[in-house]
Amino acid sequence: MELQIQNISKTYAGGTRALNNVSLTIQPGMFGLLGPNGAGKSTLMRTIATLQEADSGTIRLGGIDVLGQKHETRKVLGYLPQEFGVYPHVSAEELLDHFAMLKGITNRSQRRDLVRRLLQQTNLYDHRKKKLGGFSGGMRQRFGIATVLLGDPKLIIVDEPTAGLDPEERTRFHNLLSEIGEQVVVILSTHIVDDVSDLCRDMAIINKGEVIFADQPFHAILMLQGKIWKDIIKKHELADYQAAYHVISSRLFAGETQVTVYSETQPGPTFHAAEPTLEDVYFWAINQSKEEV
Ligand code: ADP
Q1: Measured in angstroms, how far is the CA atom of residue 164 from the centroid of ligand 1?
Q2: In the chain, which residues fall in CATH 3.40.50.300?
Q3: How far is the CA of 254 from the centre of ligand 1 (A)?
Q4: Which residues line ligand 1 (CB under 6 A)?
């Protein structure tokens, strides 16, 4: 099942244009939607998840008209929002069992098997008796995925799932996502480039409500091959460098300032060639889109 987003626009009541003619085609597998805070990612995710209306445009999931057939969409959708409440005084096992019951699995042993499988899959089996209120951020996120998987969805949306997780929890969460079947469309919305480079075969970058780049990470990195140069400079030299070169990013590196420059040829004798990364692609695309305005 393919997800087709066509010309989606949304302006909020206050006048913020959150989405401007967004079109994307998303195949089964992991898809990364990358963009800075305020880019419009959550607005797009909530629209696909039928939680809010778009002003115009269409979204199709296989044969389903997402915006017109909300009920049909919700049957095949698993949505894990940025923030979700859990019942703090209930255990993971009890709540999953309850959700399975709501889903219509009335046979007790069938339900028990399913709940056990999900708890094992999300690495929470040892914590199954623990109250959800005592769960860490990472455990909560994994519990969220367990509830999402319970519905056997064809489309899974996870919005900023790793924000606030420590590196170990993040890796665990990545491993869990990577095990979700290849037949399911999984959209990972994030401002963390590494989430996408670790997991996604395909991606898009959005900024200020517009898709500014859409390609496979692998292709995107190839495109910058031989064009990324780095130099270590003094902090006060940055403005001069920005004036002289196409600086796509700068950051502190071992207490000094490292600039990354986009150039077809070596920009200067002190620059050294660097292997492009997805982070370079990201900053390059954001810079390009600023220049086009
Ligand atoms: P992201 O998820 O990429 O951080 P959002 O979709 O949350 O971006 O926000 C896009 C823009 O829309 C931002 O400028 C944000 O302030 C604005 N926005 C988001 N939700 C609302 C809302 N309910 N009402 C008004 N403006 C909103």
Answers
A1: 20
A2: 3-86+135-216
A3: 35
A4: 12, 14, 16, 18, 35, 37-43
Report pLDDT digits (tens) over 75-108.
Answer: 999 999 887 777 889 999 999 999 999 888 899 9
Whole-prediction pTM value?
0.91
Q: Which of 8, 10, 42, 43 to mutate to test the pocket of ligand 1 (most atoms within 8 A of CB)?
A: 43
Please give the C-alpha separations between residue 208 and each of 11, 197, 241, in angstroms, as whole numbers. Answer: 12, 22, 26
DSSP structure string for 121-178 = HTT-GGGTTSBGGG--HHHHHHHHHHHHHHT--SEEEEESTTTT--HHHHHHHHHHHH
Using DSSP bridges, classify how beta strands 29-34 and 185-190 pair: parallel, antiparallel or unpaired: parallel
Question: What is the CA(42)–ligand 1 centre distance, in A?
Answer: 7
Assign domain 3-86+135-216 to its CATH architecture.
3-Layer(aba) Sandwich (3.40)
| Distance, CA of 127 to CA of 293 (rounded, Å) | 51
pLDDT of residue 293: 59
In this structure, the strands spanning 272-273 and 247-253 are unpaired
Residue 223 has pLDDT above 70, yes or no: yes
